[in-house]
Amino acid sequence: MKRHLLTAALTLLSATLFSLSAQPKVIAHRGYWRAEGSAQNSVASLVAAAEIGCWGSEFDVWLSADGVLFLYHDDEMNGQRVEKLTMAQMKDYTLENGEPLPLLEDFLTVAQRYPELQLIFELKPHNNKEQERKAVEASVKMVEAMGLAERTEYISFSHNACLEFIRLAPSAKVYYLGGEILPKRLLEEGFAGADYHIGVYKVAPKMVEQLHKLGLEVNVWTVNKEQDMLWVKRHNLDYITTDYPELALELYK
Ligand code: MG
Prior knowledge:
The protein is built from 10 helices and 11 strands. It is of the alpha/beta class and 253 residues long. Strands 1, 2, 3, 6, 7, 8, 9, 10 and 11 form a 9-stranded mixed sheet that branches. A two-stranded antiparallel sheet has the order 4-5. Helix 4 packs parallel to helix 5. The mean pLDDT is 94.
């Protein structure tokens, strides 16, 4: 009997110590683009995120008018909706570090070399919902074919795209970015958790606890100030998405 009590006490103690030492996992927002020779959503930013020891690297994906998945953040390129452009029309576009616009396939080929790095795949909301559905389908197919399904998590501001990811990749973690869906509904719809702006949690700090009680995880964007990074740790968020991953890694060491 005494022995059982001792075992229980030790288990409780180690669980407490573990939870005290748990640190938010650091995700580089659009890769570690502030590194030398890097740029947002570039192959170099993925490599740089892996090299400084980020837990994950986030990137933005679109489907071109001719059905090719590529990395790019904004809705427009030279005044035109990117989803209406073909790859041929975008061939002269270069990133700030001189890289050509990365095709998702080439980007994921490099990701295969960094097996420790989690891939935080953001699909941009497409105006054309049929194209968005095709984008989800093509994304899941490519990630699975390249053997990256186990370390790819999907995020989107498009609720519709998220539900498609949940349907087509039921074992993948999917997080909604928009901020207005309450924890209970996220659970019911099959989400792994919330990935909301820090302002959402600051206005309703109880939400973090509610998400955890439901077994959901909590990510946050885009946290760049040291005081906010400390807030994130104090409130036990599971992940942090930041443009300053080197600072977060240092703080959470
Ligand atoms: Mg993004």
